[in-house]
């Protein structure tokens, strides 16, 4: 038996008063005690001055994307070896940032499923969706998940299930990083989405939808999906969140992952707005020049306002970063998503969205300091309760009881 002890602690739901001692046997937490707890004589104790909390869970990543500008469309042309190298690099960056579980919501040729089954000790646990399902020419069509007459929904879901995916991802609206797709409309009819949901559920798989548009969100809720990514409420000329839609989303227990988190230090001072953002910002009446990171300020405010409404309506919020999709979204940027979320909801709940609430949403035995759960632990430098930026200063990480392999 061994133990990690720290002066401060967050248990996945709330901050402790005082510190904590977490006792572990192999890959499992066996007891959670006070800082002063007297451990058995044969128990090796490591003591930290900072805050101990469960390892973070990033509910929305793309391990096959490496954060390079305009790199998405080229990903499908990489070899399996090149994709596998990208995945390993991304996992190392994630665990270095304290992330011990990732949910991958879009890959190429099921390479993240292969990586999941390799399960290297010290790297994050993976849940994988395989290629996201979309329409011909629709968002991320170049990743290989197009549904059409030659490749209907039944076959697509069957193939995903046969490859052993953990979850199904469907693009219910266009996406900003596929500029020619329809970010303000819907890619599937409600009946088509419902068919996909039923097929997924029949195989025991949850289905999550990407939806920036209000229409996509409305159809996703009507179809009974399990989760919505982005949740931007876009319609021509603006962004709206009707009360009825928020209430229906909460009533159906559909979780929302707002994919916040932007690393501005990765955006060069004169960076021009990518074409998809020019299109969306233009429609929303947001400035598209001069070039630079400040252009994203109002879009972030709009998305934080959406989270505030969703939270007030009782919708379950989970945190995911969309890591990999571009320069401001490097792997390991989840702590920025939590910080941005904390401008809209209480900090302890923002942390829960990346630990306990995320674990419940992903169905993994982690996300809390609790006996019987996986020994996925993170220590950050400082008192996280009084200094939220401490989340960006990880000092020690355990994944299933093993030290992080960086
Ligand atoms: Zn994504």
Give a structural overview:
The chain is of the alpha/beta class and 406 residues long. The chain has two domains: 91 residues, Urease, subunit C, domain 1 (Roll); 307 residues, TIM Barrel, CATH 3.20.20. Helix content is 28%, strand content 21%. The protein is built from eleven helices and 15 strands. The strands form three sheets. Strands 3-2-1-4-13-14-15 form a seven-stranded mixed sheet, with no helix packed on it. Strands 8, 9, 10, 11 and 12 form a five-stranded mixed sheet that branches. The chain has a three-stranded parallel sheet with strand order 5-6-7, sandwiched between helices. Strand 9, helix 5 and strand 10 form a beta-alpha-beta unit. It starts with a strand and ends with a strand. The relative contact order is 0.18. The mean pLDDT is 95. The protein binds zinc ion.
The percent of residues in helical segments reads: 25-40%
Strand content: 15-25%
Q: In the CATH classification, which architecture of the largest domain applies?
A: Alpha-Beta Barrel
Low-confidence stretches: none
Overall CATH class of the largest domain: Alpha Beta
Hetero compounds: zinc ion
Instruction: Name the CATH superfamily classification of the largest domain.
Output: Metal-dependent hydrolases
Reported by name, the CATH topology of the largest domain is TIM Barrel
Distance between the termini: 24 Å
Shape: globular
Name the structural class: alpha/beta
Which value, in Å, is the CA radius of gyration? 21 Å
Give the rounded overall mean pLDDT: 95
What about the largest sheet?
Answer: 7 strands, mixed
What is the number of domains?
2
Major β-sheet strand ordering: 3-2-1-4-13-14-15
String of helices and strands: EEEEEHEHEHEHEHEEHEHHHHHEEE
Number of extended strands:
15
How many individual helices?
11
């Amino acid at each position: 038996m061994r133990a990690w002890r720290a002066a401060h602690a967050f248990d996945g739901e709330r901050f402790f008063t005082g510190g904590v001692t977490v006792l572990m046997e192999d890959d499992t937490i066996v007891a959670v005690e006070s800082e002063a707890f007297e451990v058995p004589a044969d128990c090796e104790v490591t003591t930290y001055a900072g805050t101990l909390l469960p390892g973070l869970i990033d509910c929305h990543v793309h391990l096959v994307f490496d954060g390079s500008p305009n790199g998405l469309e080229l990903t499908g042309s990489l070899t399996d070896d090149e994709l596998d190298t990208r995945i390993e690099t991304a996992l190392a960056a994630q665990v270095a940032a304290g992330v011990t579980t990732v949910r991958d919501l879009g890959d190429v040729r099921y390479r993240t499923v292969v990586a999941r089954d390799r399960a290297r000790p010290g790297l994050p646990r993976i849940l994988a969706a395989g290629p996201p399902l979309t329409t011909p020419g629709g968002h991320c069509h170049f990743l290989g998940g197009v549904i059409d007459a030659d490749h209907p929904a039944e076959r697509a879901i069957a193939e995903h299930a046969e490859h052993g995916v953990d979850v199904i991802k469907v693009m219910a609206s266009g996406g900003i990083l596929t500029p020619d797709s329809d970010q303000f409309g819907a890619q599937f009819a409600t009946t088509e989405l419902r068919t996909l949901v039923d097929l997924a559920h029949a195989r025991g798989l949850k289905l999550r939808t990407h939806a920036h548009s209000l229409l996509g969100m409305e159809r996703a809720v009507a179809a009974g999906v399990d989760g919505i990514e982005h949740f931007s409420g876009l319609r021509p000329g603006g962004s709206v969140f009707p009360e009825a839609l928020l209430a229906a989303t909460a009533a159906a227990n559909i979780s929302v992952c707002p994919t916040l988190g932007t690393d501005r230090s990765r955006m060069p001072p004169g960076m021009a707005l990518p074409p998809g953002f020019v299109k969306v910002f233009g429609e929303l009446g947001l400035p598209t020049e001069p070039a630079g990171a400040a252009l994203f300020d109002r879009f972030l405010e709009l998305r934080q306002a959406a989270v505030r409404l969703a939270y007030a309506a009782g919708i379950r919020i989970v945190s995911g970063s969309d890591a990999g999709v571009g320069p401001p979204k490097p792997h390991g940027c989840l702590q920025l998503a939590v910080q941005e979320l904390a401008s809209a909801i209480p900090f302890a709940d923002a942390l829960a969205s990346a630990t306990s609430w995320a674990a419940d949403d992903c169905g993994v035995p982690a996300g809390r300091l609790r006996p019987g759960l996986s020994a996925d632990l993170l220590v950050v430098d400082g008192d996280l309760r009084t200094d939220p930026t401490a989340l960006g200063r990880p000092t020690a990480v355990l994944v299933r009881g093993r030290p992080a392999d960086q």
